[in-house]
Write a structure and sequence with these properties.
The chain is built from ten helices and seven strands. The strands form three sheets. It has a three-stranded antiparallel sheet with strand order 3-5-4. It is globular.
Length: 219
């Protein structure tokens, strides 16, 4: 690989002091570095936290590609009315795309994680204000389930996990749904993101336009 072998030990030392649990580097789809720290092992599970939002976005893209939803449609088409505390007009203006791009216009200050309608209040017109906001994004899980008629974990496994050999589950933690897996499963998903919708020739999401938008900063 042409690496400075002596520096790898220094890298591992730095990772350990930075409280890392697992570190994997892949080249051409193969593991070339793999290191675990403390009591964490290759078989340990860890939460993806907000990195799981990319998995959610991928699952939404598949649902759109298969005709179950359109990200330019109002979220209310799938969650029903009064899923927020906005006026009917304000709420109807919020689309799935706004959820994906963190531009819902909902107040992210009062309760960052809450998905209850009482917490989702108007602060700006949809599409006019960027704010990293967990609550509306988490509700994409409900959009997927409503649109497809399929449980979130079942959808993700059938459409993604079973095709790339990735195991793991979304589990509820307070208002959040967080994905939990072993590190190698996360590495597999990383590889999928680099393969433009295919895995070893098997189609996972053949939608270059959506994938390009998903991987491009929205602002």
């Amino acid at each position: 690989l042409g690496w400075c072998e002596d520096s790898i030990t220094q890298l591992y030392d730095w990772l350990e002091t930075s409280n890392s649990k697992a570190f994997i580097v892949l080249k051409h789809g193969k593991i070339v570095l793999e290191k675990y720290f403390g009591t964490f092992t290759v078989d340990s599970f860890h939460v993806w936290n907000s990195a799981g939002k990319t998995l959610t976005a991928y699952a939404v893209g598949i649902a759109q590609h298969e005709g179950f939803l359109d990200i330019n449609e109002p979220t209310s088409n799938y969650l029903g009315t009064a899923w927020t505390s906005c006026t009917p007009t304000q709420e109807l203006a919020i689309t799935i795309r706004n959820q994906l791009t963190m531009t819902s216009g909902l107040d992210d200050v009062t309760d960052f994680y809450c998905t209850d309608p009482a917490c989702l209040t108007y602060i700006a017109d949809a599409g006019t204000r960027l704010a990293y906001h967990n609550g509306p994004y988490t509700l994409l899980d409900s959009v997927i389930e409503s649109a497809t008629g399929t449980n979130l974990n079942t959808w993700v496994y059938q459409k993604i996990g079973s095709k790339i050999g990735m195991t793991g589950l979304f589990v509820q933690s307070g208002y959040n749904n967080v994905f939990v897996s072993k590190p190698r499963a996360m590495a597999r998903f990383g590889l999928l993101l680099s393969q433009n919708g295919y895995w070893n020739g098997t189609e996972v999401l053949n939608d270059p336009t959506y994938l390009n938008e998903m991987r491009t900063p929205s602002q």
